[in-house]
Amino acid sequence: MTRWVLRLIIANVIVYFLEQASPAVIDLLLFVPTETLHRPWSVVTYMFLHDPSGFGHIFFNMLSLWFFGPRVEDRLGGRAFLGLYFTSGIGGALLSLLLAPYSPILGASGAVFGVLLGYAWFWPRNQMLIWGIIPIEARYMVLVMTALSLWGGWRGAGGIAHFAHLGGFAGGYIFLRLLARNTGAERFRRQSMAPVRKLETTVGAVDRWTKIPREKLHEVNREELDRILDKIGVSGVSSLTPGEREFLDRFSTRH
What we know:
Elements (H helix, E strand, L loop, with lengths): L2 H19 L2 H6 L12 H4 L10 H21 L1 H22 L9 H14 L4 E4 L3 E4 H18 L6 H20 L2 H27 L8 H17 L6 H11 L3
Antiparallel strand pairs: 1-2
Helix pairs in contact: 1-4, 4-5, 4-6, 5-6, 5-8, 6-7, 6-8, 7-8, 9-11
């Protein structure tokens, strides 16, 4: 069990028992889409609530977090793991606000779905068992759960926040994409490609400039063209002034 997975499970369990002691806790933390502007904290706090009428809701959410979370946290590190968790949960709230504005929601499902997506993102071919019997790869599990949530959401199946699940996947995907763009390897790739693109652009420009038809130029412009091309041959393209580049570009686009 990793540090933040354990702390999130403990926090959810504590809030669950507080719900049993006082229904006012639910009223305070529940996400009601139509009241988002008046209760902005609820886009986060709803993740720590669960159905107080039974133990199944919190049990299966925490079981999923315990199963998928530690490996994802080990891979991402604590800070990024929390970013994935809360971005996914907030994504669940926002999609519910957009597509089911009159349906209050509670539960960690959106956040946990984001963690599941993280697991499938890094280990897509890992085998899991549906109901402990049917084997399925993690990537296909995400696809199946997405399809079921879409179906349930558009059918309006009551009692389940299907759009919160979809929002959890969407929020998790956005977070992981942004995270991937800012890894050291990706930054190195972008930086290493920049000189290549610059070289390709420079080579293409020189090739275009050397094809300017000298015979069509006025004698004065022809002499200036020869001077600039000689300068490139001696000092390189970087030695050109903006005016010299503009001269070459102007005549290279006339034929």
